Amino acid sequence: MTTPEQTAARPAAASTAQAGASEGGRGVDLALLAVAISGVSLSAPLIAATAAPALAIAFWRNAMAVGVLTPVALWRHRGELRRMGRRATGLSVLAGLVLAAHFGLWLPSLGMTSVATSTALVTTTPIWTTLILRLRGHRPPRLVWGGTALAVVGVLILTGLDLSTDGRALAGDALALGAGLAAAVYMLLGSEVRRTATTTAYTFVCYTTTAVALLCACLVSGSALGGYDGRTWLKIAALTVAAQLLGHSLLNRVVRGLGPSTTSTAILLETPGAALIAGLWLGQTPPAAAYPALAVILGGLALVILADRRR
Predict the structure, then answer these.
(1) Which of 52, 96, 119, 187 has the fewest CB neighbours in a 10 Å radius?
(2) Domain spans of the chain, in order of start
């Protein structure tokens, strides 16, 4: 016979179980986020070591990723693609175009302005994310604003922000800033699509769109798509696995659970991560500011995660 006390305890037990499952899921997402950041941190060192046009590299990393995902998506996850619906599919295509715009804006900016300034401006992504959320009616807590600002300060400690009055450099600055905005829109679109679509379905449609758009950009700009040596192809393949399949794909996976604010803020760790990897792999001594910058960015990310947990 069930006592009144046992009956009353059931909702509390169920609530506790749900909270435990939620915390467990968040722990898994944070672990996957760490893997994703490690993957995208390899992007800059690999691109720097690859003797191929930047836009062509961006195209091939997406095209190769689509090649890997196609048999999986069309064979094992065909039903998920069918269930996406027009809205989710349309938003996934739009996200792919925005991701292509991010690559198309940022990579040319590296040749027009200083790498440090371009990096500092493109990493304004979490600021744009928070502003767009605010314009859409969301009210991010003060901790989110404070954590975002602190994380961006960490990037500035490492890269600096040396704005030039030269016309070409200013154009490059504008492109990098636009790339940061595009990355924020891409993150928010992905967060919206992942409410109803699976990671595989969304990623397949998104990367396919990005690859097609970047192919058009390469053909228009005259970027060579072939004629590389074996080492170059090997580095592009490594970039695909690390930065695209493990990096961007896992970001698409965790954005549903962690939210766009936390995910976009965590991406700032790519900057000190790339500096440390370049030091270990390419023999480039990491700047002295890399370690304090890493600590500051981690502090800002912790504030954003704390704000999200309180909410």
Answers:
(1) 52
(2) 52-310
